Amino acid sequence: AAGAAAAAGHPLSLTIPITAADGVGASTLVVDPLAGLFLIVSFGVAVPVALAGLAGAASRPRLGAAVALVLIAALLVFTADGLFLFLFGWELLTVAFYLITGFDRARPGSATASVVTAVFGKASGGAVLLGGLLAAGTAGTGQLAGLGQGPDGAARQIAYALLLLGFGIKVGLLPVQIWLPRGYAAAPGPARAVLAGVAVNVGFYGMWRTLQIFGAPPTWLLIVVLLLAGASAVLGIAHAAVHADLRYLIAWSSVENAGVISAGFAAAMAGAAAGQPALVAAGLLAATAQVVAHALGKSLLFTAAAAVERATGTTDLDLLRGVARRMPWTAAGLVVGSLTLAGLPLTAGFAAEWLTLEALMQQFRIDDLAIQLTMATAGALVALSIGIAGFAFVRLVGLTAFGPSPAAPTPTGRNDRAIGLRVAVAALAAGCLGAAAFAPLLVRLIAAGLAPITGDVTERALVPTWVLQPVYAEFSAVSPSWLWIVIPAMSGLALLVATMLHGRRWQVRTVPAWGSASPGVDRGVGYTSFGYANPVRKVLANLLQTRGELHRELPGTADAGDPVSAGHPADHTAASVRLGYTVDVVEVVEQHLYRPAARAVQAIARQVTRMQSGRLDAYLAYMLIAVIAVLAVVTAIS
Fold this sequence. Notes:
By secondary structure, the chain is mostly helical.
């Protein structure tokens, strides 16, 4: 309600009674149009997600408290007007993430995931703290609105970069994304939707607010953000397309969406660097529309996935088949959420991704060749990720929701009868579809929220007769609203023509399915989820570092449902030997960056441990050396 009031031009504020004796000064919660926009998006999805999670809330009251802590922390971040209160909310969010990801302590990997989440959360907080203090020191104020008033120089650029680094960690950009899939997968089912649909938005809000406060970024920082955004989009969707676990598939797609959103934000940064308000508006409009689509689609997917996991006890995609026949409401959530994140027409994701690509195509309006080339590169990477996203989510819709029943037994009957779950799925699905059907209204809402940054320039995206354009007139246009009329009409026309040509009787011809050109090879009756994703493993082998191994195995040892094994052993000799094929992929950032770094840190720690001799004179010598070093540095600086 407060966000809607602010977006309508009635900002609200609430002063927190902190005295000057506390060393902080008075702090105020302020709901301006930008904060109001993020409140509407974040808490708009939090309400139906909370309804869906009520089914098991009575038996897990502490989980509800942790979720409430996430919402309180997000509220503080969105509305804080001072650096202290902002940092307090940010650190509170890290604590809430740690509590949620480590809640199911018996789940394998939960303890490690909670520690990794906490470590990266503290790293994020440290970067925001250093950047904020550096900006406050040069500007002479701790109020967020005044942090950008300091003189232009190295300190300002470093502060800008540190703040974006802290926010980038929270949203899962490369190379600091490794916590996100683990943390989301380890969290209890109902809480994942809160983390992905609500909490992650604080990072995007921080980016938007930083651009508003600091204005034009240095060119080197803009280029870095563009490249990291494009790389994040491709790497995230590549892992989502090949992963065999439903939780990880959805979580890795969050990395892809973070890259797409950050690419739109980087286009706005390019507009600020070039002094073009229209490009700033185009980039922020696209990025914010993608934030809305991601919040709706990801909340819907995680809500449906939690219901599937609760009913079947598994998230293995090769075992989850034909969900629509047993859980129609849940399957509807999987389908609509998948189509939204794949960016297909009639969903909110379509217009958002179209606007993002159109914003990145405006590089020709900038004179700097380096920025032009980087924007073109980022645009190509984002386009590639969008194409792979369609492939990835077809697997989820075609096999998980509508595929044939699995060989492994699963619960039968309707498992999604809970009223809260149905209301949540219906509300979130309506949001995913309604945001496309009424896209001009969504653009007006976004324009009102972005007014503190772009003024009224964003309104140029609207064309009469419910048509959208990427702020620049006569560059291109699309109408998601008219597509809601045209596509059903054309589909109805095709059905009518087919009916007229066939008369009253429909003739269906049934033939045996083609399995293989080689005799004696039993490949089953259809694709497995693992087999469907195999082309991506092959095409992106350099990125995923796909590793395959052909091995001999005893008869009957091949596991067709194994997410690592290809599951298509061929009879080599009828009685003795079978051939199996094992495929695995590697997370390149963790393998080549964090693991070597961890080994180096452990080696240093082992060397430092030798200094702990237990002798008092040695410790006094260490302290003396440290004091002398500090005095030398202070003297040199002064």
